[in-house]
Design the sequence.
C-alpha cells in the first residue's frame, strides 16, 4: 500500500489529480490511501508537522489509525506499506517514519521540511528557509524512541529552485537519518552520484547510500524545480509537468527496498 499525504493548500482530491494516484493504483497494483487534513485542524490544510509535541503527535496517531483500518478492509500486507508526502505532507511522512519505524517499508518526502525542526509557525518559516534544525536534545529523544531500530529507508525528492522550502532541508533530513543509525551497525555505503536527463525534462542528480545490497537512503535533486510535484499533471497548483515523474521515481525506490 502507498500512503500519500498532500501539502498545504491541497486536499486529497487535488493531490490525487496532481500525482495521478488512480493511474498508479490501476497500472502498478498498489492500494493507494489518501488521507485528508481537516480545514478545522489547519486553515490551509497543512499537516501540523511544526507542532510535533502536541497537535502533530495527535495527527500522526490518527493517520496510523486510518492506515490500520485500510489494512483491515483491503488485502494489504502490513509489512509492505510505503509513505510519501509533499511539502507539509513530506515532513509529516518523516515524522510518522520516526514515530512508527517498524510499520513502514519505506518513507519519502517531496519538497518537505525537516521534522522536529520547529515548535510553532514562526519557527517553521525559519526551518523551511534552512535556518533551523532539530537540536541535540531532540535528536537524543528520537534516538531513544527508536530503541535501537533503524529508521525506515528514506527517499528525498527536492527541487534546487525551491524558494518555499529550501533544498538544504533535503540534505539536513538525509543527515538526520544518518545520525539516527543505531550504534554499532555498519556504516551506510555511499556510491558515486549520477546525473540523469531524459529529453527536455528537468535533469536530476541521484545520491544513494546502501545498506548491504539494497538502497537505504536516496536523495534526488531536481534541477530547476520549484515548490511543486515533479512531473505532476498540468493545470494544477504545486505541479510541474516539466519535471521527471516523481511518482515513478518514488515507486522505483520503494520496490527496490522491498516496499
Sequence:
Amino acid at each position: 500500500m502507498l500512503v500519500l499525504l498532500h501539502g498545504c493548500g491541497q486536499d486529497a482530491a487535488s493531490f490525487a489529480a496532481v500525482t495521478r494516484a488512480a493511474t498508479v493504483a490501476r497500472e502498478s497494483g498498489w492500494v493507494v490511501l489518501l488521507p485528508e487534513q481537516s480545514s478545522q485542524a489547519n486553515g490551509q490544510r497543512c499537516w501540523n508537522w511544526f507542532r510535533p509535541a502536541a497537535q502533530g503527535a495527535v495527527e500522526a496517531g490518527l493517520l496510523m489509525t486510518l492506515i490500520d483500518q485500510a489494512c483491515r478492509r483491503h488485502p494489504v500486507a502490513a509489512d509492505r506499506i510505503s509513505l510519501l508526502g509533499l511539502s507539509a505532507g513530506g515532513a509529516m511522512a518523516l515524522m510518522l517514519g520516526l514515530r512508527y519505524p517498524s510499520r513502514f517499508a519505506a518513507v519519502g518526502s517531496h519538497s518537505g521540511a525537516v521534522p522536529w525542526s520547529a515548535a510553532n509557525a514562526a519557527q517553521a518559516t525559519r526551518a523551511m528557509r534552512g535556518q533551523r534544525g532539530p537540536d541535540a536534545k531532540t535528536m537524543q529523544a528520537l534516538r531513544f524512541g527508536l530503541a535501537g531500530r533503524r529508521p525506515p529507508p528514506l527517499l528525498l525528492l527536492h527541487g534546487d529552485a525551491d524558494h518555499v522550502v529550501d533544498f538544504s532541508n533535503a540534505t539536513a533530513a538525509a543527515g538526520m537519518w544518518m545520525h539516527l543509525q543505531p550504534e554499532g551497525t555498519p556504516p551506510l555505503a555511499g556510491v558515486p552520484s549520477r546525473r540523469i536527463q531524459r529529453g527536455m525534462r528537468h535533469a536530476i542528480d541521484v545520491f544513494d547510500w546502501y545498506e548491504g545490497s539494497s538502497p537505504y537512503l536516496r536523495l534526488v535533486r531536481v534541477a530547476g524545480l520549484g515548490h511543486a510535484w515533479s512531473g505532476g499533471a498540468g493545470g494544477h497548483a504545486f505541479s510541474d509537468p516539466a519535471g521527471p515523474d516523481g511518482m515513478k521515481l518514488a515507486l522505483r525506490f520503494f520496490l527496490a527496498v522491498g516496499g
The chain is about 35% helix and 20% strand. The CA atoms of residues 231 and 243 lie 4 Å apart.
